[in-house]
Design brief:
The chain is an alpha+beta fold. It is built from eight helices and 20 strands. The C terminus is likely disordered.
Length: 395
């Protein structure tokens, strides 16, 4: 099995143009499941194809298993790739599709047949070995495509949005199968590209969030916005881009002004004058600076007993924020309340047991103080009190 190291890897299609991928430095360990995620145009598939050898590397160095492979052909890199389009040979049956790469590699027939049968059983397609691709469902075809990579026993598995052609139920089922297969392969490394946050959050040991070049940019910016454990990126986003990309519904953002710095944090004033006391360090920010407050829907709570005249305020909650209900989405066990708040729209996730407010009703909410993110004028996250200064580092 093989580790993968990228050192300042970049890709530029036009001489002198802004790179599509810029300054990517990553270490992917043996046995790690690493997921590249990001919006369209961020270069995640391009980066995967550079690792596979299907795109040339414009700058930097790529090592697989300790060997520099920049100039190596795809077949010399010890990788196997699963494509979005399945790419099965229509005139070959399932068994022949699984064994095609082994035949090209001149693997002895007995050994090849043993591998085919083992992988087919593992993927639960052993009863389909004599069928042609046209006789298979979408999920079965995807299993064959994954099996074709497995039989080669490579050092690194590459997945390029392998579930995007499947319906929701099949995506969930196949996602679980991929996770199970990764565990069963022991030390095999996997690199997986997706735009689906659920796939990224549930599959990844480590998630790499890529950002596209800014529109009209004349100078490149690093392609990696942040990388780390999925929950780290979700709970401690490094900047506004990361915070806004991860989460459904997306994080609520409120414009505010920093009005006071104290030993126990800062005080920020919203557009309507409401002051919120928040436990963050004002590193590099001055009184009067414009900041952005970010809070997720699940951390924005109705003020307890607000309609009944109020009660003792929970110390974990911020000062009440005045909002008005604009719309409700009932999702069974919960509801999403879309609110008009100071400086913009907000979304609050409510348990169904709370009861639905009326559209147009005044609906004060409060945020969990420890879950409010404060972003400086450049869009960088301010560290929380008692948090290490580098806790929001990209890598």
């Amino acid at each position: 099995m093989a580790s993968v190291r990228l050192e300042q890897v970049g890709k530029t299609y036009i001489d002198g143009g802004v790179p599509t991928v810029h300054d990517v430095t990553l270490d992917i360990a043996e046995g790690e499941f690493c997921v590249f995620v990001g919006p369209s145009g961020c270069g995640k598939s391009t980066l995967l194809r550079m690792i596979a050898g299907l795109e040339t590397i414009s700058s930097g160095e790529l090592r697989i298993g300790g060997r520099r492979v920049n100039e190596k052909a795809p077949g010399e890199r010890d990788v196997a790739m699963v494509f979005q389009s399945y790419a099965l040979y229509p005139h070959l049956d399932v068994g022949e599709n699984l064994g095609f790469g082994l035949r090209l590699a001149r693997v002895p027939k007995a050994d090849a047949q043993r591998r085919i049968e083992e992988v087919a059983k593992l993927l639960q397609i052993d009863h389909l070995l004599r069928r042609k691709p046209r006789e298979l469902s979408g999920g079965q075809r995807q299993r064959v495509a994954i099996g074709r990579a497995l039989v080669r026993q490579p050092g690194v598995f590459l997945f390029d949005e392998p579930l995007s052609n499947l319906d929701a139920a099949l995506r969930q089922q196949t996602r679980l199968e991929i996770a199970r297969l990764h565990r069963s392969q022991g030390r095999a490394s996997s690199i997986y590209v997706t735009h689906d946050q659920v796939e990224a959050m549930t599959l990844a040991d480590r998630m790499v969030l890529l950002q596209p070049p800014p529109p009209g940019a004349l100078l490149p910016q690093p392609s990696v916005a942040q990388c780390g454990a999925p929950l780290t990126l979700y709970r401690r986003p490094r900047n506004l881009f990361v915070a806004g990309f991860l989460g459904s519904p997306r994080m609520n953002f409120l414009p505010a002004t920093l009005v006071e710095r104290r030993d126990d944090g800062v005080v920020a004033a919203l557009a309507d004058g409401t002051r919120l006391s928040l436990p963050v360090r004002a590193d590099g920010v001055n009184d009067g600076d414009t900041v952005t407050l970010g809070v997720r829907a699940e951390h924005l709570r109705p003020v307890p007993d607000a309609r009944a005249g109020g009660a003792a305020r929970d110390a974990r909650l911020s000062e009440p924020i005045r909002t008005q209900v604009q719309w409700l989405e009932h999702l069974g066990d919960q509801s999403l309340a879309y609110l008009a708040g100071p400086g913009g729209a907000l979304v609050s996730r409510l348990p169904e047991s709370h009861g639905a407010p009326a559209i147009g009703e005044a609906f004060p909410v409060a945020a969990l103080r420890d879950e409010v993110h404060v972003f400086d004028p450049r869009g960088e996250a301010l560290p929380r009190l008692h948090e290490e200064a580098d806790a929001c580092a990209a890598r």
